[in-house]
Write a structure and sequence with these properties.
This protein has a single domain, classed as Sulfite Oxidase, Chain A, domain 2 (Alpha-Beta Complex), CATH 3.90.420.10. By secondary structure, the chain is of the alpha+beta class. It binds ligand MTE and molybdenum atom (MO).
Amino acid sequence: MTSSLDRDRRLFLAGAAGLAADVMLSGCGRVAASREGQTAFEAANEMSYAVQRAVMGSKALAPEFALSDLSPDFRANGSIDPKDPAYKALAAAKFASWSMPVTGLVEKPRSFTLADLKALPARSQITRHDCVEGWSCIGQWKGPTLSSVLDLVAPKSEARYVVFHCFDQLGADQSEGNPDLDESNTLDGPPPKFYGSIDMADAVHPQTILAYEMNGEPLSIAHGAPLRLRLERQLGYKMNKYIRSIELVESFKAIGGGKGGYWEDLGYDWYAGI
Ligand SMILES: Nc1nc2c(c(=O)[nH]1)N[C@H]1C(S)=C(S)[C@@H](COP(=O)(O)O)O[C@H]1N2
Ligand SMILES: [Mo]
């Protein structure tokens, strides 16, 4: 797994470093081949998370695009149709009774319905989604900032990470033809539920939003209904779809395989900065 991931990632980084607008903006597709700047970009990616933060700044913004740049057909990836019975029941009722607990190291734990989230000020952003597999798509996302949601639960000072617990099991719910299927099948036992985590610096970044809308429509099931994370300065695998609950923790060692996420437990980097 690691070698093919590394290869795809190098390919992706090579394209991203060149910012090959002709390829990137034409819609969803493989990114461009190697260009100048590859070495610097690869090196940047290999820098430790702390160094990368120091160089990039914790507030640097991801590029935003125009409506005319939207990809005509935004690819859906990973899980696209969760089979969890509770999820199915919520989806059948158009998520009217979905509600998301926010718990853990917070002063005021509470749940949020979609109506609660829609009552908060919304941010709309048109951004490029880069998947580690080497494809990119541009989409428009709308929802409250995660920081506005966190303000309402008052994180305790010990809280270091925001963990997203999802409804899907990637091994069972994903699209066909995804090479990653074979990887998740090598795990013992039933496939684990998808989950992920980010640190507080990313959690309060102005482009980190909980999106309930994509391209002006309610988020579809394939893209993570009713709510998914948008974390625009990291790769697609960090952007949890099908959010069931949020938990603030000091450490993620006791969750899942202890590496901070479904993909991280399988060997992907926890910090997937681009
Ligand atoms: N819950 C959940 N979130 C997920 C995934 C998944 O399988 N399950 N796949 C990730 C990956 S690898 C990518 S590229 C994006 C895909 O988002 P999209 O389906 O909107 O393209 O979701 C990410 N978030
Ligand atoms: Mo991805």
